[in-house]
Amino acid sequence: MDPEKVVVVPYGVGHQFRPPGEEESEWLKARHPLLRRDYVLYVGSLEPRKNLGRLFSAWAQILRDCPGVTLVIAGTAGRIFSGTGFERLPSRVHLLGRIGDGDLRALYGNAMAFVYPSLYEGFGLPPLEAMACGTPVVVSDAASMPEAVGDAALLVDPLEIDSIAFGLRAVLSDCSLRTDLQRRGLERAREFTWERAAKRTWQVLSDAAMAP
Q1: Could you give the 3-state DSSP secondary structure of residue 39?
Q2: Which residue from 145, 131, 148, 150 is spatially nearest to 49, judged by alpha carbons?
Q3: Structural domains in the chain?
Q4: Region class of 2: left (phi > 0), else alpha (psi between -120 and 50), else beta
Q5: Which of 94, 140, 198, 209 is the most buried (most CB within 10 A)?
Q6: What angle do CA 98, 190, 40 make, to 5 degrees?
Q7: What b/e sequence results for 44-74 when a residue is b if at least 16 CB atoms lie within 10 Å of its CB, and e otherwise?
Q8: Cβ count within 10 A of residue 121
Q9: Is beta strand 137-140 parallel, antiparallel or unpaired with respect to 154-156?
Q10: Cβ atoms of residues 194 and 12 within 8 Å
Q11: What's CA 111's distance to the chain center, in Å?
């Protein structure tokens, strides 16, 4: 197909994703006491392309460097997919299961960092949702994700366990890096709205209807 006939319309970040208030943060911690501790967050399914096997291997590498920090996995509950070697999870990994939409903003916003080492995404909304909630992001440099996050996230090679471990260790140990990623992430997330996506889609349809 002629590339000039292809138009890409990015998704939008829901308006509900913004830095949480103190009241909703305390409400979340009351319901999930584990979240009163420092934690790194992953949100998504447990399917193989999400690359949780390598994430767990990277986490096992940095446990000693990050005492008191937990890796929280929020998403579809159930047994970790077979073949990863992690039928038993590393220390300080907590499977939170499915989280309600009402708690998701606070879950994002209270995390020290958000990690998303997926091997493939058509777009990849969770990193942008985390950015919109004021959370530093460590994300895969594969597929669509670098285009989505721009220079507002720390990119890692999802096929290299050491790279994932390096990214996690860097963001957890460097307060100034977290602050910088938080600032850039908030700015980046503002570029993605459903209003903009709708207007762009309408324009594409209008242009197509008027084409000879």
Answers
A1: strand
A2: 145
A3: 13-210 (3.40.50.2000)
A4: beta
A5: 140
A6: 40
A7: bebeeebbbbbbbbbbbbbeeebeebbbbbb
A8: 20
A9: parallel
A10: yes
A11: 11
Q: Residue 51 corresponds to which tokens in the numbers above? A: 């690359």
Tell me the per-residue pLDDT of 80-102, one tens digit each, with 9 for 90 and over: 444 445 567 889 999 888 888 77
Annotate 82-101 with DSSP letters as a single string: TTSS-SSPPTTEEEEE---H
Token pair for 122: 């058509």
Q: How many residues does the chain have?
A: 212
Tokens of 22: 């103190």
Q: Give residues with Cβ within 8 angstroms of 42, minimum separation 6.
A: 52, 55, 71, 72, 73, 74, 75, 114, 115, 116
